[in-house]
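Researcher: I'm preparing a figure for a lab meeting and need a structural model of a single chain. I don't have an experimental structure, so a prediction will have to do for now. The sequence is pasted below. Please return the structure as tokens so I can convert it later.
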Amino acid sequence: MNLTDYRTLVDPTTTYGGLNSEAGIYARGDGVQFRSSGTVEGKAKFFHEAVRISDQAYLLLTESTPTDDQNQTQVVDGDDWLHIQFRFSGAGFEDVGRGQVVATPERSCIVSRYPDGSIINREIPRAESWKYACLYLCPSAFTDLLDIDETALPETTNWMAKRDFREFRYDTLPISPMMMAPLGDLFSCEFRGLARRAFMRAKTLEILSTVLHALDDARASHCALKLSDLDLSKLAAARALIMEELETPLSLASLARRVGLNRTKLAQGFKATYGDSVHAYWRDLRLTHARELLKSGRVSVTEAAFSAGYADISAFTRAFTNKFRVGPKGFKPSTSVKKHLSLLA
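Model: Understood. Here is the structure written out token by token.
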């Protein structure tokens, strides 16, 4: 069992023993950074950074090209903990017990509060790449870092700080451009030592403030649209159908009927909740699916288009090029990959 304890990830002697932490990137005890361009624990390429923001707050950055599925188990002890994760690539899910299974989709920010004693099992299927950033902190560290009192927080966010809040709760948000700015800065930072940790702490505050704003903004949109908890569950069902039936053209009307919402509430509610229209969300998923098929080298451009629900190859090529800035033929495998695939056939 791969047991995760975020509090130990800043210790280079207990983290990724097959790699050496880059010397001088942090003062001892403040953080670690590992990089590998070779195969380490089944990963062809690997980057990991862990930073101690405070005694009860940690920042984690990870980027890798996995060769296997990943399974992790985390035991929460000593206090409730907040987990704010930004998943750029590499979707999965968390089983937090008592029948609670939480999807962790790509391009999403998932804000969770785990009660003391929780056991979380995470699964992340193999993908082209995994890239995510996480903040792991106690509720008291959350209010201390932001220098706010829990009583000053609105209902949309006070569950993150309440001392007597002893239940699992989570919210899922799209990763907004406002979030992307500080997150991008984290991955591109070139500072070292004390300056690096100060930079990471500053960006952590910026990220926490954008999450607070996004939660308030999302709830305001839901209230303006009068979205109930049942409506939100139906919107989640609509997204699940889109993800499960990529090859099937789904009209807004048919999707609305299947989940039990009217078209207007589905269209406006989906945009407010997931940051994209139903059509744009479905299109991006289909094109990403087609890209992965093309990179595998096992299908032609025409087959990839049909698998993504496109009957018109010209329309597929235009949409693909607009999204990825390169045409479908640009994702053909190299000669060495083709040779390898021919040997497997």
